[in-house]
Structures are given as structure tokens and as C-alpha cells.
Amino acid sequence: MTITVRFAPSPTGQIHIGNTRTALFNWLFALQNNGRFILRFDDTDRERSKTEYADQIETDLAWLGVSPHFVCRQSDRFALYEQAVEKLKAAGVLYPCYDTAEELERRRKIRLTRRLPPVYGREALKLTEEERNALEAEGRKPHWRFLLPNFDTDPFSPQRTEVHWDDIVRGPQTVDLASMSDPVLVREDGSFLYTLPSVVDDIDLGITHVIRGDDHVTNTGAQIALFRALGAVPPEFGHHNLLTTVSGEGLSKRTGALSVRSLREDGIEPMAVASLAVLIGTSASVEACRTMNELAARFDPSTSSKSSAKFDPAELLVLSRAIVQAKSFDEVSAQLKELGIDGPKAEAFWNAVRGNIERLTDTAVWWTVVEQGPVEVELSDDDRAFVKAAADLLPPEPWDHGTWKAWTGAVKTASGRKGRELFHPLRQALTGRDSGPELAELLPLIGREGAVNRLTRA
User: Fold this and answer.
1) For residue 230, what is the DSSP state?
2) Which of 127, 355, 430, 435 has its CA 20 to 30 A from that of 226?
């Protein structure tokens, strides 16, 4: 049996870091087991689902390093759902209901006052054919509920019916079907709610493991019952803890909070996103993994906490910086070229500046400093006279990393300056910055002509 998992986003907005956690849990599980990863778009909501969102999700996953083995859309699979509906109707476990929202709310309140569970009382099962016809004559259209197998012979006398599974993440789990209402599978307009298409697709696509957020734990019991009603063996389930913002708010595709697209556009490294999305909220230490295989080696879904985890973008920047600064020139040369950083100086430039950048895009700023010099220099009159005099002491080329030490030694002897009084004006005149990469590495890249021009015009 080939391990097969799925990531099933609704293309109704941009995926955020919380969605990414689910996608990566599934992707890493597939990697560990030499399995298959299916991307399934749950786009039965025709009004809110957009092609551009689906395209964006594929782009975001590819950027993270997730490559689905198969992609499908629920909007192409309605015939399968209709077949399942007919099968459930024929088995007598899908029944029509005509209750309005107001009627359901009134009954719920009555049950609460009687200290009864606020579940649906299956009143629709008591309707005669004549009563159903009368309701439809009034213009009512039925929604369809799945009759949970939580009774012996009388559906109006539900009894404790436990569904058990060994959760990949949370360990042994139990749900009592008697504590639940019969779930609605088909709306009045004939459209399908999440549960039916999801189960039908999992059966048809051969999904062996369903790994998702722990907000789905309770309805897993009903879904297992639906798998069995359709004659299928349920897959194994895993429910990981959810991520929230630092303030504890839930993440939303509609608001774009911490969307993968925004993180990518902000220059964050994809493996920083993946590392934090997977390791946060687990017992593992949160460290930057350089590759997906390295992250897969550290991934253990069973170490996830039972409580939600707060996602701090500041931690993301720390991981991203660590990954960027550890990269070799060969790893970044193509991206540097896209930023206009190319030629014989490119590799030496990268080695000089990488310890001082947070994002790869920061290199463009330092390339401008090296190639063009500072736009503005803040120096006192004394410091301006000092750097102009220092220009006369620049040694002839060729230059290397030792040139800076030799030159500043000569300047120190001639001027009597030392420490910050010596080095700060020279750095300002050469780069326009108070801090940055080692000037021993930058000076040979600037070159003698460039250095003379900067020092004399400061």
C-alpha cells in the first residue's frame, strides 16, 4: 500500500502560515514514507472560489518546495458526489429535512432548558409522505441529513456510540456519536457541504492518512461513520494543533494575515517559513533547516502540543537570516544575478556582505554602495579634512584584505587618531553608513579610484 495524503485548501483567499503547517505536515509525512501527496482544491463554493486563488496556492506551495503528485478540483467531480448521495438514500441513511433555521434554533433552546444535549431531534424522520408533500407545496425545499448510527432500533432513542481511532498526532481518541447532530450533507439548493465531497474524494483518491488541524477532531467521528456507510475503510487520522497570531487571534485567508505570498514578497526564505511552520508548537527546538529532507528528518507529528501555538514573525526573520547567511555563492548566484549583481566581483562581494544581511534582497543596497558610493555623507569639517588627507595615503593597487589594515595604520601614524575617531569618518566617507560589512573586505571591491573619489568629495 502506498501512503497517500492530501492537502485540501478552499481557493477562497491566499493561504497563510497556518494552512502551510497542514500542507507541510502532509508533505513531510509523504516524504518520510515514500508516499504520494495530492493537492485537492475544495472549490464547491462556487461564489467564493476563484481560479486566481488556486493558481496562487500552487505558486506558494512550489516556492516552499512542495510538489504535488496529483492535482484535482472538486468542481470537476460532482458526478461522484451525486452517486454517493443516491447510494446513501437507497441505504436509508440520508433523509430529507424541511426545518427552517428559526425552527431549529427554537428546538435547540428547548432542549437546553430541559438539560438535554442541543442536538437535532430527527423530527424530519417523523414526517409522513403527505406532510412532506405539503411542505414542498409551500415552497420548502429539503436539505439532507446523514443518519448517524448511534441507536439500536429506534432512531429517536440514541445511545452512547463510541468511535475510536489512534490519532497520528494526538494518540487514542474517542468521539460519542450520540453527542452529535446528524450532519447536513446536501443543502436546499442541492449544493454539497464539506463532509460529503471530502469523504467521497478520500475514498476515490485512495487517501490513506488524513492530517489536518485539530478543529476537525469532533467531526472525525461522523466522517468515519460516513466512510463505513459508503462501504469504505476509513483512513488513519491525525490532528495537529493550530497556529495563531502573537496576540492569540486565529489566522484567516480573507484578511491575508501572514500569507505565504506576503512572506515571499518580504524576502523571507522559504525554508525559514517551512521550519517555523512545522517545528513551532512541538517539543522539538525551533531551528532553521536548510533543506526539506533535513526538516523531514526532524519531523515527528506526535510531538505536537495539544494547545495552539503563537506564530511570531520576529522568529521567522531570525531563521531566515540564519539560512541566508549560511548560503554559499553557488547557492545564491542566480538570485544575485536577478538583482543585477554579476561579474568578476560578485563572489567576493557576497562573501563580504552576507554576514550583514537579513534578506537576500538586502545585497542590492550594498552592491550600490560598492559600485556607486554613498549618496550623502555626514561629517564634521574636521572629519572632512581628515578623510581628504587620508586619501593621499592610499597605497597603490593591487589590493587585498590586508590593504585596509596597512592603510589605516599609516593614517593613524600621520594623524594621531585612533579607535572610533579614526575608523568612523573613513567608513562614513566610503559607505555612507555607521556600520556594515568589514571594510577590509569592501575596500578591494571599491578599488583605489573609487576610494579616492569618495574620500576627496566627502
Assistant:
1) T
2) 127
Question: Is 235 in the same domain as 366?
Answer: no
For the chain, the domain total comes to 4
> Any binding-site annotation on 253?
yes
* 232 and 105 housed in the same domain: no
- Residue 427 resides in a domain: yes
363 with 339: CB under 8 angstroms? yes
Last residue of a domain, one of 179, 214, 233: 179
Mean pLDDT taken over the chain: 94
Strand (E) positions, 194-319? Answer: 209-213, 236-240, 243-244, 309-310
Instruction: Name the residue range of residue 95's domain.
Output: 82-179
| Cα–Cα distance for residue pair 88/148, rounded to 1 Å | 12
CA distance 107 to 118: 8
Domain-located, residue 287: no
Q: 185-212, pLDDT tens digit by residue?
A: 999 999 999 999 999 999 999 999 999 9
Is the Cβ–Cβ distance between 274 and 65 less than 8 Å? yes
- 376-392 pLDDT, tens digit per residue, is 888 999 999 999 999 99
For residues 389 and 422, the answer to whether their CB atoms sit within 8 Å is no
Q: On the CB side of 358, how many CA atoms lie within 13 Å of its CA? A: 8
- pLDDT tens-digit map of 258-308: 799 999 999 999 999 999 999 999 999 999 999 999 999 999 999 999 899
Total-model pTM: 0.89
Domain identity same for 92 and 146? yes
Return contacts of 371-376, CB within 8 angstroms, 24+ apart.
Answer: 373/430, 373/431, 373/432, 373/446, 373/450, 373/453, 373/454, 374/428, 374/429, 374/430, 374/431, 374/432, 374/433, 374/454, 375/432, 376/432
| Pick from 145-154, 223-232, 249-258, 321-330: least confident | 249-258
